[in-house]
Specification:
Structural class: alpha+beta
Strand content: 15-25%
CATH superfamily of the largest domain: PAS domain
Number of helices: 11
Helix content: 25-40%
Strand order of the largest sheet: 2-1-5-4-3-8-9-10-6-7
Number of strands: 10
CATH architecture of the largest domain: 2-Layer Sandwich
Radius of gyration: 19 Å
Number of domains: 3
Distance between the termini: 46 Å
CATH class of the largest domain: Alpha Beta
CATH topology of the largest domain: Beta-Lactamase
Largest sheet: 10 strands, antiparallel
Length: 326
């Protein structure tokens, strides 16, 4: 992709996104949402160093991306606002070219806090996302019903090895990523190979460490093509990146639920988990519909499906079930 095309992709992104030069962190392009979050119009961010907006010291994230060892890396930073106030931000960095070392990186920013995941747009096509958790023995603890895309049912994989979900060619990379996540206590992203209907396919895997260590939340984004490389980043790729981050946060939420108290939990899809999580967090159907870009009627249909799968009869029963299990 030509440099100007990449700049345009970032400028038009609906997410708070910036393009950085690596390793000096100069801002090459920014979306309007990033400008609003940082308090400076997007066009006036260009040429400035992103560290001007930080109240803390930078970590090794850009160095890790430059090395090409990881496709993505998570960090938490402190934003210094123009009024002197400090706000915590979640930051996800991904390499944006195919060079060695990588010379540019896309950074997606969003507010931190207990409900940070609700600030990110939900997956445009939730059927492409599988979420779950992995225990300290790297066995699958929980997984969404979307695992059917791999040709499995949830009960086929729960209690089995996490690595079984992926092609053996990706095993070493996945173990390296899990080790990096455990050591750094941050999320990491990897491009991996999977088997779908006996055919090879490519997916984006994100993992984030949980307590107790070394357990992890994970999200797998399917539908990635072999032609999608860092240098071919498109608006769809940026949106998928946001969707995968959102899905990973759904997996975090899933990890807080005692699945023994919610015996039908594994029957819920990623979309249903998203909607149920928002409901339990205090949102109501109209707000949920706006957040996930669905009609209120469609949201109610998803809730009805969740009621049936979990054996409850109302929104209040659903809320009480999940709060009791947390």
């Amino acid at each position: 992709m030509a440099e100007q095309e990449l700049l345009t992709v970032i400028q038009r992104a609906s997410l708070p996104a910036v393009l950085l030069h690596v390793p000096d962190a100069e801002i090459l392009a920014a979306s309007a949402e990033a400008g609003r979050l940082l308090g400076v119009p997007a066009d006036r961010l260009v040429g400035r160093n992103v560290e001007e907006f930080a109240a803390d010291r930078p970590g090794p994230v850009l160095d890790l991306i430059a090395s090409g060892r990881l496709a993505g890396f998570e960090s938490e930073r402190q934003l210094l606002r123009a009024d002197g106030q400090v706000e915590r931000l979640q930051v996800w960095v991904r390499g944006a070219d195919d060079g060695k070392p990588v010379a540019a990186a896309v950074v997606v920013l969003w507010p931190s806090g207990d409900r940070a995941w609700t600030y990110l747009p939900g997956p445009a096509d939730p059927r492409l996302f599988v979420v779950g958790t992995v225990d300290a023995e790297l066995q699958v603890e929980r997984v969404s019903d979307d695992i059917s895309a791999f040709g499995y049912t949830p009960t086929d994989v729960i209690g089995g090895p996490f690595l079984r979900l992926f092609d053996v060619s990706s095993a070493a990379d996945i173990l390296h990523g899990l080790g990096e996540a455990a050591q750094s206590k941050r999320g990491v992203g990897l491009r991996v190979h999977v088997r779908i209907d006996e055919e090879g396919a490519i997916a984006d895997l994100m993992v984030r460490p949980l307590n107790p260590a070394p357990s992890f939340a994970f999200s797998v984004c399917l539908g990635v093509t072999a032609e999608e490389t860092p240098s071919s980043l498109t608006s769809l790729g940026i949106e998928r990146m946001g969707g995968n981050l959102h899905a990973l946060s759904i997996a975090d939420m899933l990890a807080t639920i005692n699945d023994r108290d919610v015996p039908g939990l594994h029957r819920l899809t990623t979309r249903e988990l998203d909607i149920v999580g928002r409901l339990v967090s205090g949102d109501r159907v109209p707000a949920i519909a706006r957040a996930v870009f669905l009609s209120p009627a469609t949201v109610r249909n998803h809730l009805s499906n969740a009621f049936r799968k979990l054996g409850v009869g109302s929104q209040q029963e659903l809320i009480e079930l999940f709060r009791k299990s947390a």
